[in-house]
Write a structure and sequence with these properties.
375 residues, alpha+beta, Multidrug efflux transporter AcrB transmembrane fold, Alpha-Beta Plaits, four-stranded antiparallel beta sheet, 14 helices, 6 strands, elongated, disordered C terminus
Length: 375
């Protein structure tokens, strides 16, 4: 068994673990700081909207020896607007200029043909109106709102309303960070960016639901026992699914990182940047929010419930009494999954919820008979 697999097995059994819930204020502070930075970047720099949303012209040239920098300066001089130039695999160039109408487009095409030393007839010009981008944006907002409403309804029915709220907060957290990174980096926002944003919502929700499902199973009939508080079981749920979350995130990030850093950066395929950056940042933020935001927030909300408050008092009082008698006052997960915290028979049902107990084997079972069957 690999070291990571061995660690995952120990995390699931509760033999080791990290106190995610106990340090939740640190995670909240980090998330608030990152979110504020993203919002400030969005307010100060704004988003670099593509021509799909602002309208303009796209010129595609055949193979040319002119560099992208020279072509950019020529396009800006001819149009009077900022231009974005990307090198194509065919050796040609893709030139985007915002705020260009049909008459201006023909003039720019003629001047580009002279500057780039290519036939004007071989330069392909496509015009995009701003109304098309506005329609796409409106549909994206509609899809986002409908998605979040359905998510809240589903989680409230399948789990409970506190988990639905926590998942919604995590989704908003992921979107805000991703959009803020786009503003700070200055990458162009295109329809591919919108697709990437909608894609990461599903991934973030999937990772969150995995932890929530483990938490739901672990807290079944939680008030019938006095060994664990709700926060402790929530912490065990995070640790139990931690290796799975890490493995899933790494596997998802590797191909996206290849698109972003190798395809978009090293090979210069700039058209991959719009969707790959949103996926890369969103996947990382989704994994972070599932572990450090969503579940701790559920524990915070749940600890305000009167029954859970009473349970916590009973658990702490029982541990204090055990400490007064000279017994170990540690939380059960710190002692190992198979250790009994006390001899109270009322805890047997809880033990089945939070973890198995070691049962002594019968001394007379199968004595003298290899199969153990009755003759």
């Amino acid at each position: 068994m690999s070291k990571l697999g061995h660690l995952g097995a120990r995390l699931i059994r509760g033999e080791v673990g990290y106190d995610f819930i106990g340090k939740r204020k640190i995670w909240y502070g980090i998330s608030i700081l990152i979110t504020i930075t993203a919002i400030v970047g969005l307010a100060v720099r704004g988003l670099n909207m593509g021509i799909e949303f602002e309208g303009g012209a796209v010129f595609t040239t055949p193979k040319t020896s002119v560099s992208a920098g020279t072509a950019e300066r020529s396009a800006e001089a001819a149009s009077g607007h900022d231009a974005i130039v990307q090198e194509l695999g065919t050796g040609g160039l893709r030139i985007q200029i915002s705020g260009v109408d049909t008459a201006k487009s023909d003039q720019i095409k003629t001047e580009l043909a002279k500057d780039l030393n290519v036939p004007e007839a071989k330069i392909n010009a496509d015009l995009v109106g701003p109304s098309w981008g506005e329609t796409i944006a409106n549909k994206a907002w509609t899809g986002l709102i409908v998605f979040m409403i359905l998510v809240v309804i589903y989680l409230a029915i399948a789990f409970e309303w506190r988990m639905a709220i926590a998942a919604l907060v995590a989704l908003i957290h992921d979107i805000t960070i991703t959009v803020g990174i786009y503003a700070l980096v200055g990458f162009e926002v295109t329809t591919g960016t919108v697709i990437g944003l909608l894609t990461i919502l599903g991934y973030s929700l999937y990772d969150t639901v995995v932890v929530f499902d483990s938490l739901k199973e672990g807290t079944k009939d939680i008030t019938k026992q006095t060994r664990y508080t709700y926060s402790e079981i929530a912490n065990r749920s995070i640790n139990g699914t931690l290796v799975r979350s890490i493995n899933t995130t790494i596997v998802a990030l590797l191909p996206v990182a290849g698109l972003l850093f190798i395809g978009g950066g090293f090979l210069g395929a700039g058209m991959l940047n719009d969707i790959s950056l949103s996926l890369f940042v969103g996947l990382a933020a989704g994994a972070y929010s599932s572990i450090f935001i969503a579940t701790p927030l559920v524990a915070d909300l749940k600890e305000r419930d009167p029954q859970i408050k009473a349970l916590k008092k009973r658990v702490l009082a029982k541990r204090a009494a055990a400490a007064a008698k000279g017994e170990s006052a540690e939380a059960p997960e710190a002692q190992g999954e198979g250790d009994d915290f006390d001899d109270d028979p009322s805890d047997d049902e809880a033990a089945a919820v939070v973890g198995p107990r070691h049962q002594p084997a019968s001394r007379n079972r199968g004595r003298g008979r290899p199969s153990g069957k009755r003759r």
